[in-house]
Amino acid sequence: MNIPEDSLRHDSISVALVKEKVDAAFPVAIANLGDLVRIPGIAWDAFDPQQLELSAEAVAALFRETGIFELVEIRRAEANGKVGAPAVVARREARNGRPQVLLYAHHDVQPPGDLSVWNTPEFQPTLIDGRIFGRGAADDKAGIVTHLTAIKTLVETLGSDFEVGVSIFIEGEEEAGSPTFRNFLEANRDVLAADVIIVADSANWTTTIPALTTTLRGLVSQVIEVQTLDHAVHSGMFGGAVPDAMTATLRLLASLHDEAGDVAVEGLHSSKAAELDFTEEQLRIDSGLLDGVSAIGTGSILDRIWTKPSITVIGIDAMSVAMSSNTLLPSVKAKISMRIAPGQEPQDALALLRAHLENHVPFGAKLSYGEVELGKPFEANSAGWAKKLAEASLSAAFGNDSVDIGIGGSIPFIADLLEVFPAAQILVTGVEDADSRAHSPNESVHVDTLRGAMVAESLFLIKGNDLRVN
Ligand SMILES: [Zn+2]
């Protein structure tokens, strides 16, 4: 359905009003965040699963207290004979053609990691210089309280008789790779189906410049085996005339990049990232690149890590140095890991990679294929009304234009959301910033960035209440 552009703009009076309401709700939101941070719910086998139950119950209680949902429940799915972690779902049905908006976050957290590196107790929320420190303070308990506060602000602004539909999905095993996610989606379609899915689990560009994560690269990995001989032979007797599998493999793998370090596989898709300031110097610092070692590839740094393909050989099975003898190796295995650009189908990328390998394998060596992994990339639907409204809401909330950012890796569950709900517009928003250190010791959320995220999501829902999309 076509939504006129000017119906997606916010006027300054309603923005100011929403900011006031979020300010009023903020102390409670911070207290809620603190309570959640104190529950160490970690979905890894080595940790106490009871904490995940407590965490899910605490989250369910917070959404139940809003009093606006027709259903708030803790549910689980199964996969491979194992029951998954508890997730919280809630739904209030849209009325009169208004959009149904699903708000996603996760309540499980990463393990704390090396405790000696933490400057504050890892599960004790601690405010220092405008940031709240603690495991999960950003990733992703800040996402939960952002959704909660946006709903409360919606009710404060419109009363409890609003028409926009709101659903909640707070997963409990994201940091463990979401093993039952796909089955959970399939089993709970009725609660989760939506016109728009807001995934609050990413980052802003800075603490003051908001961002939508509009691209994620996908993944194609392929194990190969290269064989030149039917058994190992003495290098002193045959070396010089008979090719060994290691030399053949290394020459083949070296063909995957050109002289500039760009991926040499022909036909792969690539595009351009937004023009944001990200220098090679910053790349060097962030990655720990050694002095004197050059970056590889061409185009802007962000093109190279967000919107162009990359190839890395991540493992080789061959003779170890300790066990090596003077022989020509008959066969070598390698695992090639390829990040693919947004807009590229994994199956197509795999076919192009295989064609390259078959064209470049030297000496007529035998090439065979082992295990394959495929993960879809993501590209936000920028023509949809939801992205335009999200941009307008973020820009109004922060007072700075929202920018489009990418992630060079993938968020695997996004691909599942796309497959199960192909008609939904997916928005990947965030409460984090470049200093949030999600997954690392000293994780934190910036208080004003969190407040901005809450204002933006409130504005989105309030405006959504005016839109007729169905
Ligand atoms: Zn997360």
TrEMBL record:
<dbReference type="GO" id="GO:0046872">
    <property type="term" value="F:metal ion binding"/>
</dbReference>
<dbReference type="GO" id="GO:0006508">
    <property type="term" value="P:proteolysis"/>
</dbReference>
<dbReference type="Pfam" id="PF01546">
    <property type="entry name" value="Peptidase_M20"/>
</dbReference>
<keyword id="KW-0645">Protease</keyword>
<dbReference type="InterPro" id="IPR002933">
    <property type="entry name" value="Peptidase_M20"/>
</dbReference>
<dbReference type="GO" id="GO:0008233">
    <property type="term" value="F:peptidase activity"/>
</dbReference>
<dbReference type="InterPro" id="IPR011650">
    <property type="entry name" value="Peptidase_M20_dimer"/>
</dbReference>
<protein>
    <submittedName>
        <fullName>Unannotated protein</fullName>
    </submittedName>
</protein>
<dbReference type="InterPro" id="IPR051458">
    <property type="entry name" value="Cyt/Met_Dipeptidase"/>
</dbReference>
<feature type="domain" description="Peptidase M20 dimerisation">
    <location>
        <begin position="216"/>
        <end position="362"/>
    </location>
</feature>
<dbReference type="Pfam" id="PF07687">
    <property type="entry name" value="M20_dimer"/>
</dbReference>
<keyword id="KW-0479">Metal-binding</keyword>
<keyword id="KW-0378">Hydrolase</keyword>
